[in-house]
Amino acid sequence: MVDRFDEHFFLIAKETGGIEGLLNSLFSFLLRRTDYYYECDPGDKMGFPPGVALNMLGNIFKKYQDEHYKIHKKKSAQEYKEKLEIYQRKQKEQQEKQKEQEEQKKERQLQQQQQKQSEQSECQKQQDVKIKQEEKNDSFTNKQKIDPYINTYNGGQTEKYSWSQSGNDVVVTMKVPEGSNKKNIKVIITASTLTVKVKDNVVVDGKLYDKVKCDESIWSIEENLLTITLEKGQENIWKTVIQGDQEIDATKVENTKPLEDFDSETQGAIRKIMYDQQRKQQGLPTTEEEQQLEILKKAWDAEGSPFKGQPFDPSKFNLSNGQIQF
């Protein structure tokens, strides 16, 4: 059978890099070890008459080519040329489209960067104007007295600053080194970020808990105490000043304003916090953990699950810290 040498041919093709390597090996073998290429004279007992070896090769090639055409339709060179032109045209269109998308993406990124720089520049200009106005106001610099008690009402303390809040604003206070003044302190307030530099050292730099009105936010320094007043973008309760810093328990925030007076989004957030806190105290799962349990319950009996057919057992999972652990 012709296929009994297939494994040998596969090995040769693999070792020589494919079909061309296989053919090179075969014809090299015929040259080195046989008389295939030898053109004989009449009466010779080796080789073939001129042209016979080549015809033999052509006949064998055509035999198996005909077998191929019984399964696959024969293609003309003109048909291939037309398909190649269509393929190359589509490739070119795809490359041009991809190039256009990349250029549009770069343009959007540049616009976003310019917008951010413009926003920071505008806020900085507003801050500079306010600083100059405050420097001209002698009553502010000479008569203003800082209460030695740092207020943390409805707020908290971190290693770098203390803070308090009302429904409309957040007041951040921090001690600065002796000799600090408005010339060597830089406070940058944008709608969503706060940066504080003291003598070229970055003290605070991060994303705010929520948006603020940077044009209505101010800062001042007196007796080595820096005070920053951030006007909230909307009336709500903050759990921290900088995202990632220690958060307070929002359920303990004192506020004489009835819950119904807050907007619906804030009411929902407060109710969710209170609900989750109550669930934790009762040893029950929070809203997020309940959602995770619903997902696990669906996956428990899904195809391919090792638990399929068994009663759902939530004790096999640990949902602490908002993560699922087996």
Automatic annotation (TrEMBL):
<feature type="compositionally biased region" description="Basic and acidic residues">
    <location>
        <begin position="125"/>
        <end position="138"/>
    </location>
</feature>
<comment type="similarity">
    <text>Belongs to the nudC family.</text>
</comment>
<feature type="region of interest" description="Disordered">
    <location>
        <begin position="97"/>
        <end position="148"/>
    </location>
</feature>
<keyword id="KW-0597">Phosphoprotein</keyword>
<dbReference type="InterPro" id="IPR025934">
    <property type="entry name" value="NudC_N_dom"/>
</dbReference>
<keyword id="KW-0963">Cytoplasm</keyword>
<dbReference type="InterPro" id="IPR007052">
    <property type="entry name" value="CS_dom"/>
</dbReference>
<feature type="domain" description="CS">
    <location>
        <begin position="156"/>
        <end position="242"/>
    </location>
</feature>
<feature type="compositionally biased region" description="Low complexity">
    <location>
        <begin position="110"/>
        <end position="124"/>
    </location>
</feature>
<feature type="compositionally biased region" description="Polar residues">
    <location>
        <begin position="317"/>
        <end position="326"/>
    </location>
</feature>
<dbReference type="GO" id="GO:0051082">
    <property type="term" value="F:unfolded protein binding"/>
</dbReference>
<protein>
    <recommendedName>
        <fullName>Nuclear migration protein nudC</fullName>
    </recommendedName>
</protein>
<dbReference type="GO" id="GO:0005737">
    <property type="term" value="C:cytoplasm"/>
</dbReference>
<dbReference type="GO" id="GO:0006457">
    <property type="term" value="P:protein folding"/>
</dbReference>
<dbReference type="InterPro" id="IPR037898">
    <property type="entry name" value="NudC_fam"/>
</dbReference>
<dbReference type="Pfam" id="PF04969">
    <property type="entry name" value="CS"/>
</dbReference>
<dbReference type="Pfam" id="PF14050">
    <property type="entry name" value="Nudc_N"/>
</dbReference>
<feature type="compositionally biased region" description="Basic and acidic residues">
    <location>
        <begin position="97"/>
        <end position="109"/>
    </location>
</feature>
<feature type="region of interest" description="Disordered">
    <location>
        <begin position="304"/>
        <end position="326"/>
    </location>
</feature>
